Amino acid sequence: MNWLLVLAGAAVGAPLRYLVDRAVQERHDSVFPWGTFVVNAAACLVLGLLAGAVLAGAASSRWNLLLGTGLCGALSTYSTFSYETLRLAERGWRFLAAANVAASVLAGLGAVTLGSQVGRQLFG
Questions:
Q1: Of residues 79, 107, 60, the one with CA closest to residue 17
Q2: CB neighbours (10 Å) of residue 83?
Q3: In terms of pTM, does the model score above 0.90?
Q4: Nearest to residue 44, comparing CAs of 114, 120, 100?
Q5: pLDDT, tens digit, for every residue of 60-72?
Q6: Contacts of 70 (CB under 8 A, 6+ apart)
Q7: What is the DSSP letter of 68?
């Protein structure tokens, strides 16, 4: 049963990643990978909220499998982030590559921290 929960979450997360990435990137005339940045930060926020709810006892391990492992696992993308960062560096945009790394890590940590705190407050 657990793998079905992961599969269901991933079945929503993967197309959502694609659609959000394309929608965000189309709105920015930039070589910076804004779409990947947004989906990764959003996944961190959702995972933080979920963690806060789990820690507060308001969400079960099944929700963690569905939303945490399935949805957030498919929504976020470390491989695309890495590839896009490498591509920026190879094309001579080393500052943007470094900015992507720094901003992505800071945004991810900030989003998961904020989500966790909000989740604990809402569900605690």
A1: 79
A2: 13
A3: yes
A4: 114
A5: 999 999 999 999 9
A6: 5, 6, 7, 8, 9, 10, 11, 12, 13
A7: I
